[in-house]
Amino acid sequence: MADIDRDTLLDIYTRTMKVNRTDEKFRSLLMQGKVAVMYYCVRGQELVSAAAMTALRDEDYVVCTYRGQGEQTAKGIPAEKWWAECLGKVTGTCKGKGGTMHITHPEKGIMVTTGVVGSGLPIANGLAMASQNTGDGKVTMVSFGDGAANIGAFHEALNMAQLYKLPVVFLCQNNRYGEHTAFADHTQSESIYGRAAGYGMKGVRVDGNDVFAMYHAAKDAVDRARAGEGPTLIEAMCYRMMGHFFGADFSYMPKEHLAEMQREDPLPKLRAVMLEHQFTEVELDAIVAGIDAEIDEAVAKALAADPPGPEELQIDVFEKVPA
Amino acid sequence: MGEITMAQALNRAIDEAMAEDSGVFCLGEDVGAKQGGGVFKVTAGLTEKYGEHRIRATPISETAIVGAAVGAALAGQRPIAEIMLMNFVGVCMDQIVNHAAKLRFMSGGQTNVPLVIRTTTGVGVGFGGQHSDMLEAWFAHVAGLHVVTPSNAADAQGLMRASIDCNDPVIFIENILCYGLKSQDPGPGYRVPLGKAAVAREGSDISVITYGRTVLDALAVASELANEGISVEVIDLRSIAPYDEETVLASVRKTGRALTLHEAVRPFGTGAEIAANIQEKCWDSLKGPVRRIGGTFSPVPFASVLEQAWIPNKQQIVDQIKASMGRG
Questions:
Q1: How far is CA A307 from the centre of its chain?
Q2: With helix as H, strand as E and coil as C, how does chain B read?
Q3: Which of the four pLDDT bands, split at 50, 70 and 90, describes residue A262?
Q4: At residue A1, does pLDDT exceed 50?
Q5: How many other C-beta atoms can be found within 10 angstroms of the C-beta atom of residue A167?
Q6: B75, A126: Cβ pair inside 8 Å?
Q7: What is the pLDDT of residue A258?
Q8: Which end of chain A is flanked by fewer CB atoms within 10 Å, N or C?
């Protein structure tokens, strides 16, 4: 596997740690009872999002799911706006009207966060179709889980994307669970990426815990899309180290398997890679400390911010607000 | 100027919008030149003018069609998606209800979805249960969607232009039996504002509030009853949601009587909502209860005799109006 230049590696590391520290902070706030909202934990999947977002340009489009913290944070939604939205505040990206499952921030290309499993793929096609129509050169990446590969929209979207050679990348984060159902109990095919062949599409499977494999898979797919060579289906193998949502029982996840997957944890692996590339412990710790400080400030501001006013119920339903 | 059919009027509105704005494009099953320009020929001739990227003939994938329209609209284009028959919207309801209708709100106004979903339906052509339903109430019940249906060719042209202009999602319902109807040609660039009803015929004894093909029945009945000294006002809503409450209430305050009429089944139909609203807001003006006519509460049948029995007919309209007038 080809190497990654030091700047890009540092970029991926920084984004990965932003995702991880945001996740840790959210769970800490929930455990302390300081906030009480739905949160879909991304522990174990940080690197997949960070490497994939690094492969995109700022202006490229992303469609993600309720477990989209990784894409949102790594693509660059400012922490202050992100936290305020998650806590239902008027200062949030969506004025507190979207919430954790519906974050939108077009400035950084986060066009849709959907709470409906699998529904993002057809929308990603449309964003890509707009780019194809206008020649704006943007690529759209849509992230989803293994469970999403079994809804009809997945199949319709893959067929249509390949038919029109749309500049779209389908990123399946195979975290081994669709809600509470293990991969083998919801899918009989051995892989998701293998389904791409059924549509004449390029499909690849990568180790989502390996920074080199993950980044290159994403970069290759993005480059192909941008060059007009059509879509790619990436299946990034990873592991959801917690339950479906924060606080949910996950006793159905076998302890032995969890222990085995924890040995594959992407974070210590990435740290080792960074050290091998002559980044120092001090440098890396300083990056994390800086991220933590930024998050703490964002959370404090979000907690202190106002909720949206009742007039917001009538605003944004239609373009025209009723008199 | 001569006459124009509804199918021609729709084609012209789309053609004009595509000529003026390169962001307007069509997608749907069979809409392309190779497929003949749509089952009802509404997009005929447009591929030749605008190319296959702007008239995209799609696979039979309703979810992918509407989803792509949502995505393209988010990116600033103005897609016109065709769902060949209204019953097939069931296949793509997630994209319409959870995404098209809600993304403006859920994003706090950062994004919007300026798309038109054209669809066709209608009772009376023997299509049976899965190709004939008027499902406008499903959409009228969802905040964030405009629901529009024309009763004549000129309105079809004007409403289509306004729908394409609209920065919110529009469900545009075309009644199969109306495609051949002719109107006086309204000329190029004609627009009918969304949310504005037409007083299709003025009258003083009773207001019939209707839309789509049943407007024709209401107008025919109004002509007949005029001979008997009953003056019927016919309101053609044109936009079912949001609807022109002001025009409806003003009409009922004038006539003191109201009848809602639609092809969709009666229970939980849009007529029920309008009737309830009239009773709340015009109680002091009403001379009797608001009456409702709708289709029979059963699937639309195939056999012609059953189908004709299913759909509201002129006699029912006459009977309800006379009953309302105390002349039953």
A1: 26
A2: CCEEEHHHHHHHHHHHHHHHCCCEEEEEECCCCCCCCCCCCCCCCHHHHHCCCCEEEECCCHHHHHHHHHHHHHCCCEEEEEECCHHHHHHHHHHHHHHHCCHHHHCCCCCCCCCEEEEEECCCCCCCCCCCCCCHHHHHCCCCCEEECCCCHHHHHHHHHHHHHCCCCEEEEEEHHHCCCEEECCCCCCCCCCCCCEEEECCCCEEEEECCCHHHHHHHHHHHHHCCCCCEEEEECCEEECCCHHHHHHHHHHHCCEEEEEEEECCCCHHHHHHHHHHHHCHHHCCCCCEEEEECCCCCCCCHHHHHHHCCCHHHHHHHHHHHCCCC
A3: confident
A4: no
A5: 28
A6: yes
A7: 84
A8: C
Query: What's the pLDDT band for A323 if we cut at 50, 70, 90?
Result: confident
Q: What ipTM does the predicted assembly reach? A: 0.96
Contact A112 B56 (CB under 8 A): no
**A114–chain B nearest CA distance, Å:** 8
Does B59 contact chain A (CB < 8 Å)?
yes
Phi, psi values for residue B86, rounded to 5°: -60, -35
Which residue has 């300083």 as its token pair?
A286
| Contact state of B71 with A92 under an 8 Å Cβ cutoff | no
Entry pTM: 0.97
The yes-or-no verdict on residue A143 having pLDDT over 90 is yes
Q: What is the pLDDT of residues A223-253, one digit of tens each?
A: 999 999 999 999 999 999 888 888 888 888 8
